[in-house]
Design a protein that fits this description.
Elements lengths: L2 H9 L7 H30 L12 E5 L7 H15 L5 E5 L7 H4 L17 E3 L2 E5 L14 H13 L8 E5 L6 H9 L4 E6 L3 H16 L4 E6 L4 E2 L6 E2 L6 H8 L3 E4 L4 H9 L3 H4 L4 H29 L1
Helix pairs in contact: 1-2, 3-11, 5-6
Family: Belongs to the Mrp/NBP35 ATP-binding proteins family.
Keywords: 4Fe-4S, ATP-binding, Iron, Iron-sulfur, Metal-binding, Nucleotide-binding
Pfam families: ParA
Length: about 325
């Protein structure tokens, strides 16, 4: 019903004696029409969104994300995947590098070479440390820049997810690019994501963007496992004193968002060597505090997945 017809209808009612009554009823009618419009938009959007389809043979998918770059997100994803394999050797674990423009997983996992196609014309992921890996960095040469528009990125993501022989996998860890962009939207709309781990550092700049990332996942209805804090502090090599060189605001921010800090990692110069050598800390430094914390993080993720499976089973029974 257009505005002129509403006005004509309202003004034709005999009980209206003044302009105030006219606009009072007009306001009610317009509000009603606005609500109808919003409901109509929701229905249209629901029809337009792609159907979430699981990856064949993949039981669970965990995203590792960060609002800001340079906070150790890929380091967390790599060591989490490897730690999950270490503490549960019988579990099949995969690692997807979804950062199309800046893939780092091949370096950190020490994998290279062009993947092969199997008889089903699916890409066979490369295997190292017992973890199945796939990255755009394996499909383009190391020195070539990927300069693509959004649609091409989405097509690349589709190829890295649905055209790879991932199964059987108990858990696929997905290293996402920093920020809140097309990649996260595409993954959340196309795949049944079990949860997201958000990585941050204590700096105000990183925490501010972390809030945006958390808000994005809430809008996309992706549950958040918790926050991982990197570079929380540095320990003096002489006296052992903790120095919070980047501030100490992560706990406050986590409380404001209603999230748990599920693990916190201090600055360690040895981590840089692990990254450059392509040997994750969980293997290079198995007795270090970092390796112990990655194992704890892996246990936490396994428990999160198990609890979620129990909830799904109970929901089906009802």
């Amino acid at each position: 019903m257009n505005l002129q017809r509403i006005i004509n209808k309202v003004c034709a009612q005999p009980l209206l004696t003044n302009t105030k009554n006219v606009f009072s009823i007009l306001s009610i009618r317009l509000k009603h029409d606005k609500n109808d419009l919003e409901e109509h938009k929701k229905k249209v959007m629901a029809r337009g969104l792609p159907e979430k389809k699981p990856l064949p043979g993949v039981k669970s998918i965990i995203l590792v994300a960060s609002g800001k770059g340079g906070v150790g997100k890929t380091t967390t994803a790599v060591n989490l995947a490897c730690a999950m394999k270490v503490i549960e050797p019988d579990k099949e674990i995969g690692l997807l590098d979804a950062d199309v423009f800046g893939p780092s997983v091949p370096l950190m996992m020490n994998i290279s070479g062009e993947p092969m196609l199997n008889d089903n014309h699916l890409i066979e992921p490369l295997l190292n440390y017992g973890v199945k890996c796939m990255s755009m960095g394996l499909l383009v040469s190391g020195e070539n820049a990927v300069v693509w528009r959004g649609l091409m990125v989405m097509q690349a993501l589709d190829r890295l997810t649905r055209h790879v022989a991932w199964g059987p996998l108990d858990c696929l860890v997905v290293d996402t690019p920093p920020g809140t962009g097309d990649t996260h939207l595409s993954l959340a709309q196309n795949l049944p994501i079990d949860g997201a781990i958000v990585v941050t550092t204590p700096q105000s700049a990183a925490l501010q963007v972390t809030k945006r990332g958390v808000n994005m996942f809430e809008k996309l209805k992706v549950p958040i496992v918790g926050l991982v804090e990197n570079m929380s502090h540095a320990i003096c090599s002489n006296c052992g004193t903790k120095n919070f060189i980047f501030g100490n605001e992560t706990k406050k921010t986590a409380n404001e968002m209603g999230l748990d800090i599920i693990e916190s990692f201090e600055v360690d110069a040895n981590m840089s060597e692990c990254i450059n050598s392509g040997k994750p800390a969980i293997y290079a430094l198995p007795d270090s505090i970092h390796a112990e914390k990655y194992r704890r993080l892996a246990n936490r993720v396994f428990k999160y997945i198990a609890d979620k499976d129990i909830q799904h089973a109970k929901a089906k029974e009802q």
